[in-house]
Write a structure and sequence with these properties.
The complex is a heterodimer of chains A (228) and B (527).
Chain A: H1 4-14, H2 18-30, H3 35-55, H4 61-85, E1 94-99, H5 107-118, E2 122-125, H6 132-142, E3 146-150, H7 158-169, E4 177-181, H8 187-192, E5 197-199, H9 202-227
Parallel strand pairs in A: 1-2, 1-3, 3-4, 4-5
Helix pairs in contact in A: 1-2, 1-3, 2-4, 3-4, 4-5, 5-9, 6-7
Chain B: H1 10-25, E1 29-31, H2 34-42, E2 46-49, E3 56-59, H3 62-71, E4 76-79, E5 85-89, E6 95-98, E7 104-106, E8 113-115, H4 118-130, E9 137-138, H5 151-155, H6 157-168, E10 173-176, H7 183-194, H8 197-202, E11 206-210, E12 217-218, H9 220-232, E13 236-240, E14 243-244, H10 252-273, E15 279-283, E16 286-287, H11 300-315, E17 321-323, H12 334-349, E18 354-358, E19 360-361, E20 366-367, H13 369-387, H14 402-407, H15 418-424, H16 434-443, H17 464-478, H18 486-503, H19 512-517, H20 521-524
Parallel strand pairs in B: 1-12, 6-18, 7-20, 9-10, 10-11, 11-13, 13-15, 14-16, 17-18
Antiparallel strand pairs in B: 1-3, 2-3, 4-5, 7-8, 19-20
The chains are: A alpha/beta (228), B alpha/beta (527).
């Protein structure tokens, strides 16, 4: 079943047009379209397309951000109705994000938060210069699946290691996955400090988070089987 | 006539400054430390509650900025260990130094990046010391062997890098501190090298990079460093780094305006703390790459930003700095050569006093000492271009390449060509003329064997990277380590030990790392 509105919804996200997306979301509700359907078949398809286009160099960061903003606008309209119907969009996972202690550079972290959030993850953004203790506390509080630590400066990269150690110390890993990012971060550094993954940009971070969620689900399942 | 490139008209520079002054009032500047807030308030600046708990937003009026600009020196010198003037910050004089504080080193064997170590820093310093194209050293790479990921050990990493450079070089140093607490140890080290804090003030050997965070944010350690440097009378180089489209307006003119506002705010803090203390209108502006989110240092727009920012600084009569001669390539390849040589030329033609960045690959993430010697050739060419075409008979100016200046050949006063033709007629025997012999070194830059101009022989042609590797080995074997007095070395060691204690570096914490960072360093680096 495909509503003709779905195509327009998808396009409004690709165009990065929050006003159009808002209008289409209202229209969907007025037409009695299931809001979850509107998201999954309409708006989210636009985000997926934008991500793919970014991946192959046809769309750029400002385009991607505009798409994410349009997505946010549509969700804002649809969310109350989804809640009412008890059909809220199931989050792909819960992610706690922040920059490493001493690092106030958050442009990369913000991009990741925007893209992941638009793609269906629930994001808990702790902001900049976050201590390992703060990461641990938030991860416990929200029962996070993934903790992401960003560091631009080579001098603050040590803070990524400190977060991973703190997660270990508190027994949160391996259930909670730790991912890192930042200009100077390399695969080697990620391996050295025992991170579960790293990514070069926000779209790679989305892929990484999705893969890790697959892993999280598998581990939960196998644990369930083992316990059963 | 000296060739110049000017990107901004006087009218546009005026507009940039006008808007920069407006930005300093609205939205104002974030300031992140209590002493800075206090200093500003005592100068009558309104500081409102900040964006975060621990900072404030200062609205700095133009009147105060102008007053601080008036007390900032128009020029100053950096001195070498022998106490000679070695770098002139001022006018259109151009100097180059290697890039700073890189974390990775390109392994010339495997062509992979690996964490940089003390031995890499020593090798970079040795090569830089032997090349006249570099007027100053830089604390080029982080020493992961000595100051790895132990929080305490990395806390004295800045001091350690300077310690290594001072032991291996007589040249001035471009350096910096990544923490507020680490600066004093570095100043002490330099004072020990100079003889006393007063001597350091009179004849500074080093300049410290101090960076605001874009947009318009003088964070805790940056602003504290500014104050401490101003009070110590040690030159501060304000390195504002707007990323056009990412952390600053996407237009180049807009980013230059933000840069101006950030540096003006910095100069105000600096001059309030230490009126007349030397300060540099510096920067590492770049565009923001819309695909990768990175800062492409080799982009021509990045060079344009550096040139334009320097033009604004020159209008204010201040010494200038920029970040060029770097590339985004991961290898020492044609892209690296093209980007680095291009920006070396542009920087020289813009008359930027200190141009940092040589040797840097991968958007400043990786250093290559082979690239450094290739960049030295580009820099020599840039100097040659910036010298322009001499017309004999005019008053001959000194060359900017020190080695050539030192030769001081007598220059015949001549016609352009007729006097030489009077001697050769139509024989074409110019090689025999005394003018040829006397002038060719000034007319032509003679590159090192890194640059291939040879005729094809029976051997297969070599590429520039291969020749650069040979050149690096040659320069390192030519290098002679300076002799420091026992007294100075003892003082160095005492300062490093004291700072290691203060930072909480303990003997058992990271084994060899701390050993290298503290007690055993002098022995380990003896060679």
């Amino acid at each position: 079943m495909s509503d003709p509105l779905f195509g327009a919804m998808r396009q409004s996200i690709i165009d990065g047009a929050p006003d159009t997306a808002t209008e289409l979301a209202h229209q969907a509700l007025a037409n009695g379209i299931d809001p979850l359907e509107a998201v999954n078949q309409g708006f989210a398809a636009g985000i997926k397309f934008a991500g793919d286009q970014f991946g192959c160099g046809e769309m750029f960061l400002p385009d991607l951000l505009a798409s994410a903003e349009a997505m946010k606008a549509a969700i804002k309209i649809l969310e109350p109705e989804m809640l009412k119907r008890g059909s809220e969009r199931e989050a792909l996972g819960k992610i706690v994000l922040g920059t490493a202690r001493g690092d106030i550079h958050d442009i990369g972290k913000n991009l990741v938060a925007t893209i992941l959030s638009a793609s269906g993850f629930q994001i808990f953004d702790l902001g900049t210069s976050v201590t390992p203790e703060q990461f641990v506390a938030k991860a416990k509080e929200v029962d996070a699946d993934i903790v992401g630590v960003s560091a631009l400066l080579t001098t603050t990269m040590a803070g990524q290691k400190a977060v991973i150690e703190a997660l270990d110390r508190n027994g949160l890993r391996p259930r909670v996955k730790a991912i890192i990012g930042g200009a100077a971060v390399t695969a080697k550094w990620a391996a050295e400090i025992g991170a579960d993954g790293f990514s070069r940009n926000a779209i790679d971070a989305l892929e990484l988070a999705k893969n890790l969620m697959g892993k999280v689900m598998n581990e939960v399942r196998s644990k369930g089987i083992a316990e059963a | 006539m000296r060739p110049r490139i000017q990107l901004l008209s006087p009218e546009v520079i005026g507009r940039i400054l006008r808007e920069a002054f407006e930005l300093l009032m609205d939205p104002g500047v974030r300031v992140g430390s209590a002493p800075v807030v206090e200093l500003l308030r005592s100068a009558g600046v309104e500081v409102a509650a900040g964006v975060a708990d621990n900072d404030g937003v200062a609205r700095i009026p133009e009147r105060l900025v102008q007053q601080c600009l008036a007390s900032a020196p128009r020029d100053f010198y950096l001195y070498n260990r022998q106490g000679e003037k070695a770098v002139h910050y001022g006018g259109d004089d151009v100097h180059f130094d290697p890039g700073s504080c890189c974390v990775q080193m390109l392994d010339p064997e495997t062509l992979e990046a690996r964490p940089s170590e003390t031995r890499d820093l020593v090798r970079i310093v040795q090569v830089t010391e032997t090349l006249p194209q570099f007027a100053a050293q830089s604390t080029a790479v982080v020493c992961s062997d000595a100051c790895g990921d132990s929080r305490a050990a990395s806390a004295i990493g800045d001091l350690y890098r300077l310690f290594v450079v001072l032991q291996h070089s007589d040249k001035p140093v471009v350096t910096g501190s990544f923490s507020a607490a680490g600066l004093q140890g570095m100043i002490d080290l330099l004072a020990a090298d100079s003889g006393s804090p007063d001597k350091l003030r009179q004849q500074p050997r080093a300049v410290f990079d101090v960076c605001p965070s874009p947009p318009l944010n003088w964070s805790e350690f940056g602003s504290r460093n500014l104050l401490d440097l101003a009070r110590a009378g040690v030159p501060a180089q304000i390195v504002s780094m707007p990323l056009a489209g990412g952390t600053a307006p996407v237009t180049l003119a807009g980013s230059v305006t933000q840069h101006a506002a950030e540096v003006l705010a910095g100069i105000t803090l600096h001059q309030l703390a230490g009126p007349g203390s030397p300060v540099v209108w510096g920067g590492a502006p770049a565009i923001f790459d819309m695909r990768t989110g990175g800062a492409p240092m080799g982009a021509v727009e990045t060079a344009m930003l550096n040139m334009a920012c320097a033009e604004v600084g020159k209008r204010l009569g201040l010494p200038t700095h920029g970040y060029l001669v770097a590339t985004d390539s991961k290898l020492v390849d044609a892209q690296a050569g093209a980007e680095s040589a291009r920006s070396a030329m542009l920087g020289a033609l813009a008359g930027i006093n200190m141009i940092s960045g040589a040797g840097m690959l991968e958007s400043l993430a990786c250093f290559s000492v082979e690239k450094l010697v290739i960049d030295a050739e580009s820099i020599a060419s840039a100097y040659r271009l910036a010298r322009g075409i001499d017309v004999r008979g005019d008053e001959v100016r000194g060359d900017e390449v020190p080695s050539e200046k030192a030769r001081g050949e007598k220059v015949p006063r001549e016609t352009l060509a007729t006097a030489m033709f009077a001697q050769t007629g139509l024989s074409g025997e110019f090689l025999k003329l005394k003018e040829t012999r006397a002038l060719f070194r000034q007319e032509q830059h003679l590159p090192s064997p890194v640059i291939d101009r040879s005729a094809r022989g029976s051997e297969p042609a070599s590429d520039v990277f291969t020749r650069a590797r040979i050149r690096v080995d040659e320069l390192v074997s030519k290098y002679r380590k300076p002799t420091l007095s026992e007294d100075v070395l003892r003082k160095f060691q005492a300062i490093v030990d004291r700072e290691a204690d203060r930072a909480g570096v303990v003997g058992t914490e990271t084994g060899k790392n701390v050993g290298a960072a503290t007690g055993t360093t002098l022995g380990a680096l003896g060679g």
